[in-house]
Structure formats: structure tokens, C-alpha cells
Amino acid sequence: MAIIATPQQLRQIYPQPRERSLKKQLARLDPYARRFLELSPFCVLCTQSLDGRADASPKGDAPGFVRVEDDTHLLIPDWPGNNRLDSFSNLLSNPAVGLLFLVPGIDESLRVNGRGELRDDLELRQLFARGERLPLTVLRVEVEEVFLHCAKALMRSKLWSGEYRVERSLLPSMGEMIKAQTGSADPAETQEQMLERYHKTLY
After folding, report:
1. Which DSSP category does 10 fall into?
2. Res 144 pLDDT > 70
3. C-alpha separations of 112 from 17, 136, 197 in Å
């Protein structure tokens, strides 16, 4: 096995990117990126701690849940989760963020890189109100790089075709897996119980 350790070794394997791949990178959100965000119900937030520990956290809601504040800023509400706060803890020491946005049925994706800050301003939280419920915080991202990513990965995975879709029964329930992983003596939560609990605490 040969470890690739230098940029020179890497470029001996991969050709230089096409000019178009470099020129498509923008420093602000254009109308196409804005439209992509309006249609996207899902993104992955990537962060890294100062000691190099990386984290990728899924975020999702109705299409357009990530709001465009202006051409260089995004707002992302944070609704109830597992309270580990891995990504947010990373942001406190290293504000660099990477975001990958997906739109069901579209094989292209949108990548946004920038710097994030956590806010609990009431006026920002109220932008995402669901009845009387507000997100605890809002992640404000200063956009530094934005570009459309080609369709090849989603084409290979056939993510939207349903061809690789599996029945939930092919995996144990989340409760069963966590019980085995943690060695808990408590009864395993069934998939139905978990879904009922989740639906009560989505917002």
C-alpha cells in the first residue's frame, strides 16, 4: 500500500481540474444558488475542532428552511436534537464550516464554505417561529465560497431513483442498536416508539 502524502503525488494520479471547475466558484450567492436553497430540504453541516476532530451533522426541514439573509449570509435554525453539540462546540473554537445542500430529484448539489457564528438573538429566532416554538439558536454563516457540484456521485448512487431503497426491517431498530452498543439493561425502544417520540419533539 502506498500512502499519498504530498500534493505532487496526488497530481500524478489526478489530472488538473478543467477551467470551468475553477471558474464556477463564486464568493457570493447568485440567483441560481438562491433558487437551489429555496428548494432544498436537507443539508450536511461540516465543522472541525482546533485539534483536527471533524464532524458532519445532518440538518433538515421544509424546503427553504435555510434562509438567505443577503448575498453573503445564510441563517440556519437549530431545532431539538440529541444535545451532543459536536458541531456547535467545534464552532466555538474554529468557525470554519462546510455545507452540502441536496434537493430531492436533482442530481447536482450545492456546496457552501464559510465561517459560522451561533446567535440567540430573539429577532433571528423569531424568523423561524412555528407557532409559539422558536429554535434555541440560529447559525449565521458568512459565505466565502459557493459552487454547484456535478451530478456524478448522485448518479452513481441512484439516490433518487429508489433502486437501492431498502426496507427498514433490514436493520435493527435504532433502540436495539443503541442498547447493544451501550450495554444498557433497559428494554430496547421499538422503531414505532421512537418515531412517536420523535414526532412529539421535532420542534
Report:
1. H
2. yes
3. 19, 23, 33
